[in-house]
Structure formats: C-alpha cells, structure tokens
Amino acid sequence: MDFFQQQTQARKKTGRLLVLFSLGVVFLIALTYALLVVLLQFYGVRYGTHVVGSGTWHPLILLAVAAGMLLIITGGSLYKASELSGGGQSVALLVGGRQISPSTTDFAEKRLLNVVEEMAIASGLPVPPVYILEEEGINAFAAGHSPSDAIVAVSRGCLKYLNRDELQGVIGHEFSHILNGDMRLNIRLMALIFGITVISLVGYFILRSAGSTSSSRRDNKGAIVALLLGVGLYILGVGGAFFGQMIRAAVSRQREFLADASSVQFTRNPDGIGGALKKIGGLQAGSKVEHAGSSELAHMFFADGTVSAFAQLFATHPPLEARIRCVDPHWDGEFTLTRELDQEQEHSKDIKRPHRAFGSLPGIPGLPQLPIPVLGLADEARPVDDVQVVRDVQRAPQPTISASLFEAIKEPFSARAVIYGLLLDSNEAVRNKQLASLQSNSDPRDIAELNRLANDVRAIPEGQRMIVAQRTRPALRQMSVEQYQRFRDHVDQLVLADEKISLFEFCLHSLVIYQLNGAFGLRRPPTVRYRNISALADAVVSILATLAWNGSNDPNAVRKAFNDGWRETMGDVSLPELPPNGQVELEQFSSAINQFRHSASLVKQTLIRGCVACIRSDGKITHSEADLIRAICSSLDSPIPSFAADKPAS
Q: How far is CA 47 from the centre of its chain?
C-alpha cells in the first residue's frame, strides 16, 4: 500500500465529500425556502411593508433562509469539530474507551499492546495509545487527525474471542485506516453530519415554542406559521441526516476492502483477518457496539457496529460474507459457534511462540526494503509474554537494554527521565550546566529518577539511542497537556544549555517533541504550499548534502551518495554542486525540512525516496544516517522506512 498515494486520494475524496455535502446543503436551503414561502403565502404574512404574493421568487426571504441554514449547519459542525479537536482520544472517550497503561499486568491487554507495536513497526508508524471498549461484540476502530495523534480502540470481545493472529489481522486493518488518511475523513464526516442534524433540533425547539404560544393565542397566524415551520424544519433535518448517512455509507464502504487487503499485506497472513471476520459471524453479539455514542462512529468501526435493523439500510461496511471471500476465496460459507478463549492456554502458546522473521514486511512501497531496527531485552531478561519482536534473521543479534530501562519507558514519569538522560552532554561542564538548570526548574523526584536510570541510559548502544527515545512516546502521551508543556520546556533547556543544537538533539526533538506537539494539539497541520518538487530544489540540496556528509568522510563516496539521491529525487535535472562539508548548517537543514512539511504528499514521497537512495549508495547505513531518516520522516508525518543501522565503518 502506497502511503503517499493513499493520502492524496484521501484528500481528493475529502474534496468530493465537501461537494456532495454542499449540494445537500443547497437542497435543504431550497426546500426550506419553498416551505417558508408557501406558509407565508397561505397565511398572507407580511415581510417588511409587503404581503408575500403568489410569486415564487423572493430574494430577501431566500437570503434570510440561506444565511440562517448556513449559520445553523456551520455552527453545529464547528461545535462537533471542536469537541473532537483532541484527536483520537476525544473519539475514544465518546464511546466510553479506557486507555490501557503500557505497564499493565493483564495478559490479554499486554498481548494487545504487543500486537499494536508489531503492526506499528510493520507499517512504519508511531505506536499509538490503545483503548479498551467494554463491549461484548468483536470490533475496533482507529481515530485521529494524523498519525501523531492517532489511537486504536478495541472491544473487550476482541480480547476474549480472538487469538493472536486474528488480533493482528484486526489491528493491521486499523493501521491501514491510519496510513490511508481515512481517520481525518471520518472525523470530518462526523462533524458535517452533526451540523445537518442540528437543523432538526432547531425545528424541535421552534415546534415547542410555537406550540406553547398557539395554545394561549389561537388566532395568532405567526404562531401557526412558526408551528408548521418547526414541523417542516424537523422533517428536513431528519431528511438531511438521512442524506448525510447515505454519503457516509458511500464514502466508507469501499475503504474497508482496501483496509482488509492492507491487513494481509502487513501480517502476511490472510487467515488472521479472515478468522476474525468468521468469528464475528459466529458470535451472538457479532460486532455490535451498544454504547449510546456508537451511532456517530458507525463508519469508523472494523465491522458494522449498529444495533438496529433499520440502520442496515445505510450500512457503512460491505457484507461480512463478501469481505471473508476476498481474503479466503475457498470459504464454505458456514459460521461456526464462537467460543471464549482459554487465556491460560493462550498465555502458554505465547511463551512457546517462536520469533517470527518479518524480513519481507513492507516499509514504504516503492522504497528499498530495509531490515527493521528492534528494541529488546536480552533473552534472560525478557518477560516471556512480551512483544515478539520483529527482526531480520539475517542480521547480527539485536542490541539489548536493561530490564529496568525496558520497564521505565512504559511509564510517563520514568520515560521523561530517560529522555533527560539521553540529552545529557558527554562534556562534563555542559552536563553540569544542564543538571543545574534541570534542578532549578523541575520536581526533585525527576532528578532522583534521572539519577536512578543514568547508568542504564549511558549503556544504551549507540544505534539504539534514538529508537529508545522513539519508544517512549506512548508513555509520554499519557501526560496532561500542562505536564507535557513543562516536560517540553525542560527538554528545550537541556538542548540549548551549550547554546547550540547537535544533530542528535535535532533528531530526538523531531522524533519526540514534534510528534507529541501534534498529539497534544499544540501545532496546526501544515498547509500545502508546494505541489512540485522543482520549486524545492535548494531544499533538496541542503537535505541530501547533510545526509551524504554524515554517512562518510570520503569525498568520492559523499559525491556519489549525493548524486544518487539527487537523481532519484529530481530525475533529469542537472546535478548541482555538492556543498562542502559543514557549509550546510543545521538551521539551514531544519528550514529545508520545514519547507517540505508544507509540500504535497507525493512531493514528500519523492524526497524520502531520494534520501533512501542517498544513504544506501555505499551499501551500508550508519547510525547517524538512520537517525536522520527517522527524523526526516517524523518531521513530515510520514511512515518511517524499515531499516537497521549497520555498524559504522571503522
């Protein structure tokens, strides 16, 4: 699945959605205008100094109706949008979701977190927070405005009835929705449909008000008009919601087939998602979600979560049988009774489960397939039911971190200390200045935790330091906004203690702070300014030169890497001069990245392909190059290609 192409298609689909919605609004305005004119003519009601005549064209009335309807719909949509401005977390709370702590000791919940991490690695996306819905049916959804604020929510039924492979199939399906841009589209659908629904609420309030007035003054023509108008608006609002449901169903139905196919691509196991779909068909509760707020989220669920038979008329998902046959053409069409799993038996299976070699898992389609960097404990320290790490068996054994550090990155309090420890400078004078700044501005408990973990952080292998930082994000997202802002200030103080920013600090800031700013709603999505990469040629030079010089000290190898990256990025455009080593400063590199933040998805894709061609030019990937690629992709809100840094050449 091509992330960038899917993002482009999702934006086009959003445009078509807005066109359909606009046509619906115009239709509602026309009907409301016609209703009001008929009522005013029937009762001879005046507007201004004139009595509404028998004509059908009354511009002032049309203008008033259009303004009123647009105000109601826009206001309702903006209200719902603001309610969902918290991203995926807002949606999860809407249906009673509870976030799973990364340090949970419940086996089923730990297995779910492990599976989510596996699918995040397979898709190249950040690991999202995971929520549990206390629902008996088998269902799930992903929500958020972007990958940085996405969440995955899973029903209790998934944990009770699905084995690990089937759970992987469901989570892989949800990661597809994160990758292909469906999440933002789904949230916009919720806001727009709510805006139309508000019309019926206005009609209801007019109806109540007019009813009480007409009961006391039977000869009041205005009250009767208002009464009939209220009835009409209520009916039109219901009809508008009906139209909105049709749009929602049409937009979301085909995306489910794409997500099912992507799940098979991520897991390389069609029996996973196929088995989950079959168990839904064999379960009495099916995929139903009973929570009152679920109707708004019908188009977001893994399977149809509606309870009423009437809602099936506007099904947002293809028939269960059709989805199963797409992944299992030989299915006999029979659903067997779904039974609850024996959790102890599942636990035993996970203990004996061998490491799976996912060397062929996709990174970004169209990019070279690179092995996956994995963070793990030594075998004797690893919890037996912890994540079965994704690794390339042809590579050297994976580096290890201590058990205490492995647990520390799962808790917000300790994860902060890990980030502080990673930023402490090797120069003693600078480090003392950093510690003094931290002690004067932070809680003493933070300093104590930093001291407790200091040796473990220093022992992290060089090629794993950025991966450790990246893996702290799920825990750090559990902070409140105020806690996060204090944490961010402390990080900035540590980075600027020596009055300069190193490449490592830039990469860590991009991977952690930039992404968390998005998760906490503290940065706005960048607007698209560049749709052609030719307008960004100077930025391409800065980025490729930084990558090339950080990969080798050999001028010939650097020139070759730069040229390979340029040709992959710019095609036949004549090669520019390679800037000398050190000429492209970090500020210039950062400015170039910022320009690409404001580029179209396919332009970002072209840049990332060029970056990968650059770092792979000499057949090896240094730790510095690997960190830079992660930082670039993170800064562009794009999936990170699967790769592992080779040992730097001596």
A: 51
E strand residue ranges, 136-199? 140-143, 151-155
The answer to whether 176 touches 119, Cβ cutoff 8 Å, is no
- Read off the tokens for 566: 């340029």
Phi and psi for 46 in degrees, rounded to 5? -85, 150
Give φ, ψ of 456 to 5 degrees. -65, -40
Look up the pTM and report it. Answer: 0.71
Residues known to be catalytic: 174
> How far is the C-alpha of 615 from the C-alpha of 626, rounded, in Å?
8
Q: How far apart are CA 606 and CA 601, in angstroms?
A: 9
Please name the residues in contact with 352: beta carbons below 8 A apart, sequence gap of 6 or more.
Answer: none
By the 10 Å C-beta count (0-12 exposed, 13-18 middle, 19+ buried), 331 is classed as middle
Q: Which band of pLDDT confidence, cut at 50, 70 and 90, is reported for residue 577?
A: very high
| Token output for 61 | 């009335």
Phi-psi region of 106 (alpha: psi -120 to 50; beta: other; left: phi over 0): beta
CA dist 637 to 145, 374, 404, 516, 518, Å? Answer: 11, 21, 31, 12, 10
Name, in order, each residue with C-beta under 8 angstroms of 18's C-beta and a sequence gap of 6 or more.
Answer: none
On whether the CB atoms of residues 602 and 8 are closer than 8 A, the answer is yes
Structure tokens at 10: 């999702």
Handedness of CA 442, 448, 450, 451 (dihedral sign): positive
What is the C-alpha separation between 24 and 18, in angstroms, rounded? 10
Which residue type does 97 have?
Answer: G
In the block, tokens 């104590």 appear at 448
Residue 133 φ/ψ, nearest 5 degrees:
-105, 125
Alpha helices in 459-600 (DSSP H): 465-471, 473-476, 481-495, 503-508, 515-519, 537-551, 555-570, 586-597
Please tell me what DSSP assigns to residue 512.
I
Q: CA torsion sign, 183 to 187 to 188 to 189?
A: positive
Mean pLDDT of 62-82: 84
The distance of Cα 214 from the centroid of its chain, to the nearest Å, equals: 52
Q: Hey, what are 147's tokens?
A: 């990958």
> What order of strands is seen across the sheet that includes strand 98-99?
98-99, 130-133, 151-155, 140-143
The residue among 225, 124, 214, 142 whose CA lies nearest residue 183 is 142
Amino acid at 27: F
- What are the pLDDT digits (tens) for 105-136? 899 999 999 899 888 877 778 888 999 999 99
